[in-house]
Amino acid sequence: MNEYEYDDECLAVFLENQGQLFDEPVASSEEEAQEVLEDCLAVVVDGADEVREYMEESGMDVGGLSDEELIEANEVFSLSDDRYLVVIA
Questions:
Q1: Sheet containing 43-46: which strands, arranged edge to edge?
Q2: How many Å apart are CA 65 and CA 32, to the nearest integer?
Q3: Which of 5, 3, 27, 24 is nearest to 14 (CA)?
Q4: Exposure string (b/e) for 41-55, b if CB count within 10 Å is 16 or more?
Q5: pLDDT for 5
Q6: How far apart are CA 16 and CA 26, in angstroms?
Q7: Which of 32, 40, 47, 80 fits 27 for a cystine, CB–CB 3.0-4.6 Å?
Q8: By the 8 A CB rule, do 36 and 27 touch?
Q9: What is the pLDDT of residue 4?
Q10: Eight-state DSSP code of residue 6
Q11: Residue 20 near residue 74 (C-beta atoms within 8 A)
Q12: Distance (Å, rounded) from C-alpha 3 to C-alpha 57?
């Protein structure tokens, strides 16, 4: 898991899809997106197994969710190469 290593794709995906997690926009630039992700201690993980592990470590009850349901959660943003940005707000 990589905390605070947000590449251009992470920032762009978060900016474009922040509405899936927040009721109103919380960032309007990549710099603001970086700050929000850092404040939320967001992580970039590889695969659904690491998504599950991080969410469980964060105290979320995800035991009854399938991998598909897990990666469709509002806190999970799909990136390329089977990577996911997980934002626990």
A1: 2-3, 43-46, 83-86, 76-78
A2: 32
A3: 27
A4: ebbbbeebebbbebb
A5: 75
A6: 11
A7: 32
A8: yes
A9: 61
A10: -
A11: yes
A12: 14
Q: For residues 49 and 2, give the distance between their C-alpha atoms in angstroms, rounded to a whole number.
A: 15
Q: Which amino acid is at 83?
A: R
pLDDT, mean of each 10-residue run, the chain (89 residues): 77 98 97 95 95 94 94 96 93
* Global pTM value: 0.92
Cα–Cα dist 53/34, whole Å: 23
Give me the pLDDT at residue 52, please: 96
- Please provide the distance, in angstroms rounded to a whole number, between the alpha carbons at the two ends of the chain: 18
Tokens of 48: 């659904």
Which residue matches tokens 């990136």? 79
As a residue count, the chain comes to: 89
